[in-house]
Amino acid sequence: MKLEARLKELGYSGEIFTTLNGRSSLYIFLKSLNLHKGTKVAISPFTCVAAIYPLICLGLTPVYIDIDDDFQISLKDLKKKWNDDIAVCIIQSTFGIRSNAELISWVKSRGSVVIADDAHSLGAEFSVSHKDVDAIYLSFGVEKSLSSKIGGALVVNSLDLARKVRDQYDKIHNPSWSTVLYHLVQPLIFPLARRFSFLWSFFKKYSLLYSGVNSFELEGLVIDEKLWVRKLGYVLESYLLFMFKNFEMVTKKREKVVVEYNHIFGKNYNGALIKYPVLKSELSHSQLKAIYSSGLYISNWYDSLIYPSGVNLVIYGYEVGSCPNAEKLSKEIINLPTGNGVDLKTIHRLSDMFHTS
Prior knowledge:
The protein is an alpha/beta fold. It has 2 domains: 3-169, 3-Layer(aba) Sandwich (Aspartate Aminotransferase, domain 2), CATH 3.40.640.10; 246-356, Aspartate Aminotransferase, domain 1, CATH 3.90.1150. Helices cover 39% and strands 13% of the residues. The protein has 15 helices and 9 strands. The strands form 2 sheets. The chain has a 7-stranded mixed β-sheet with strand order 1-7-6-5-4-2-3, sandwiched between helices. Strands 8-9 form a two-stranded antiparallel sheet. α12 (247-265) runs parallel beside α15 (344-356).
């Protein structure tokens, strides 16, 4: 069974194109729209640089929209900043928390293209239909519910748009064999690097560990699309299909972990979130200490606007102060793990520590 068929089983019913990563999918779709240079694209700055880099490469102008406390695009701020020059809106389901249907409906009513960034949300609950948007792009990178440490997919719901995407997709190439080999060894060395800090330093020093972000993306340097826009290719797609055997198990584990965290933190998140967000301001000093001493892996998503730290905000057109809530939340957020490596006994110990703090 092909990857496209497996994704259709999960509810993605449009035409599906597999790519080397999510940014390749987004780039191909935006390029197929044949937008003029300077065309505006609404997007949240509470995201990874990989979601914005394709805009810079195509000469499009990001319009940064603030987020609400649920980490999703603020409809109020979107309406405030909206103008008829905004041709596209990219809506990210941050951590797998779904955007509401009202937001999507409002953008569609303005005649703009809606792209769902589902890089975090494969396996999460759906509050809106996949058919409500024009296109969806997925990522199968590090820490995703379906992960081969690399890979992406583009789902296009309109037949007319799909034909335009096909024209672009047919022009790009499969990854080189050296690229394939490099990514095939990542699942072997990544767990070792995370467990042993000296290995992490060694692998990073010799560029053996794929971080998911390239140096040219941090600086916003536009390089030839032939150097980074790729199809997934037969070998990597076959490996991703193999990893589907773990998908249901990982998804159920995430759902269970989210419920456990809800009991501890008094929240009501649903589904298989890939990260469980809490804010430092919600916690006492002793509770923060309990989290950091629990042994849980605390990630840094997104402790800097346009993650990771080191992104050239000037090149990416972000004006400090334009999205105050996103800036505040990036300083406050703590991300707890939900993946298959999380030990429920550790979470139970954390719960005990909270109840005695």
